[in-house]
Amino acid sequence: MATPDKQSPATDGVGRFHQLQQELSPSRRTPYRLTEDIAIPPVTRGQLKALRSTRDDDAQMAIVLGEHADAVEELFADRPADEWFVFQRDLYAHLFGQGSAELPGGSVGS
Asked: CA geometry: angle at 102 spanning 88 and 54, to 5°?
Protein backbone atom coordinates (compact mmCIF):
# COMPACT_ATOMS: atom_id res chain seq x y z
CA MET A 1 0.00 0.00 0.00
CA ALA A 2 1.44 3.41 -0.97
CA THR A 3 2.07 5.94 1.75
CA PRO A 4 1.11 9.61 1.44
CA ASP A 5 4.77 10.70 1.20
CA LYS A 6 5.50 8.57 -1.87
CA GLN A 7 4.93 10.27 -5.19
CA SER A 8 2.96 8.33 -7.78
CA PRO A 9 1.65 9.30 -11.20
CA ALA A 10 -1.79 9.97 -9.62
CA THR A 11 -0.33 12.51 -7.16
CA ASP A 12 1.74 14.61 -9.54
CA GLY A 13 0.07 17.87 -8.41
CA VAL A 14 -2.17 18.11 -11.46
CA GLY A 15 -5.87 17.43 -11.83
CA ARG A 16 -8.92 17.08 -9.63
CA PHE A 17 -7.32 14.32 -7.51
CA HIS A 18 -4.68 16.83 -6.38
CA GLN A 19 -7.31 19.56 -5.87
CA LEU A 20 -9.39 17.27 -3.63
CA GLN A 21 -6.34 16.58 -1.49
CA GLN A 22 -5.76 20.31 -1.08
CA GLU A 23 -9.39 20.92 -0.04
CA LEU A 24 -9.27 18.54 2.91
CA SER A 25 -9.00 19.97 6.40
CA PRO A 26 -5.33 20.05 7.40
CA SER A 27 -6.22 19.15 11.02
CA ARG A 28 -7.67 15.81 9.91
CA ARG A 29 -4.59 15.05 7.82
CA THR A 30 -2.31 15.04 10.86
CA PRO A 31 -1.77 12.12 13.21
CA TYR A 32 -3.83 11.97 16.40
CA ARG A 33 -1.21 12.45 19.12
CA LEU A 34 -2.34 10.42 22.15
CA THR A 35 1.01 10.30 23.96
CA GLU A 36 4.61 11.12 23.15
CA ASP A 37 5.00 7.61 21.70
CA ILE A 38 1.52 7.07 20.21
CA ALA A 39 0.59 9.06 17.11
CA ILE A 40 -2.28 7.48 15.18
CA PRO A 41 -2.08 8.35 11.48
CA PRO A 42 -5.10 9.28 9.35
CA VAL A 43 -7.18 6.30 8.25
CA THR A 44 -6.42 4.94 4.80
CA ARG A 45 -8.82 3.63 2.18
CA GLY A 46 -7.48 0.15 2.90
CA GLN A 47 -8.37 0.49 6.58
CA LEU A 48 -11.88 1.64 5.67
CA LYS A 49 -12.34 -1.44 3.52
CA ALA A 50 -11.10 -3.62 6.38
CA LEU A 51 -13.57 -1.92 8.77
CA ARG A 52 -16.44 -3.11 6.58
CA SER A 53 -15.32 -6.71 7.02
CA THR A 54 -16.24 -6.83 10.72
CA ARG A 55 -19.01 -5.61 12.98
CA ASP A 56 -16.98 -6.27 16.15
CA ASP A 57 -16.18 -2.95 17.88
CA ASP A 58 -12.84 -4.18 19.26
CA ALA A 59 -11.73 -5.45 15.85
CA GLN A 60 -12.74 -2.17 14.22
CA MET A 61 -10.81 -0.15 16.79
CA ALA A 62 -7.75 -2.36 16.24
CA ILE A 63 -7.97 -1.60 12.50
CA VAL A 64 -8.16 2.15 13.14
CA LEU A 65 -5.33 2.11 15.69
CA GLY A 66 -3.11 -0.01 13.43
CA GLU A 67 0.36 -0.64 14.85
CA HIS A 68 -0.60 1.22 18.05
CA ALA A 69 -3.54 -1.04 18.94
CA ASP A 70 -1.75 -3.01 21.67
CA ALA A 71 -0.16 0.10 23.21
CA VAL A 72 -3.49 1.95 23.31
CA GLU A 73 -5.30 -1.04 24.80
CA GLU A 74 -2.60 -1.32 27.48
CA LEU A 75 -2.81 2.40 28.23
CA PHE A 76 -6.56 2.24 28.88
CA ALA A 77 -6.76 -1.30 30.34
CA ASP A 78 -7.00 -0.21 33.99
CA ARG A 79 -8.62 3.18 33.40
CA PRO A 80 -12.33 3.96 33.97
CA ALA A 81 -14.52 3.08 30.98
CA ASP A 82 -15.67 6.68 30.51
CA GLU A 83 -12.09 7.65 29.61
CA TRP A 84 -12.12 5.02 26.85
CA PHE A 85 -15.42 6.31 25.47
CA VAL A 86 -14.22 9.93 25.49
CA PHE A 87 -11.01 8.86 23.73
CA GLN A 88 -12.98 7.00 21.05
CA ARG A 89 -15.27 9.97 20.42
CA ASP A 90 -12.31 12.38 20.23
CA LEU A 91 -10.30 10.06 17.96
CA TYR A 92 -13.21 9.56 15.55
CA ALA A 93 -13.90 13.33 15.48
CA HIS A 94 -10.24 13.95 14.61
CA LEU A 95 -10.01 11.23 11.96
CA PHE A 96 -13.46 11.49 10.36
CA GLY A 97 -14.76 14.93 11.32
CA GLN A 98 -16.90 16.27 14.14
CA GLY A 99 -20.11 14.29 14.67
CA SER A 100 -18.91 11.20 12.79
CA ALA A 101 -19.71 8.92 15.73
CA GLU A 102 -23.36 9.94 15.52
CA LEU A 103 -23.72 9.05 11.84
CA PRO A 104 -25.74 5.95 10.91
CA GLY A 105 -23.41 2.98 10.93
CA GLY A 106 -21.00 4.63 13.38
CA SER A 107 -19.42 2.55 16.09
CA VAL A 108 -21.71 1.83 19.02
CA GLY A 109 -18.82 2.27 21.45
CA SER A 110 -17.94 5.67 20.08
From this structure: 65
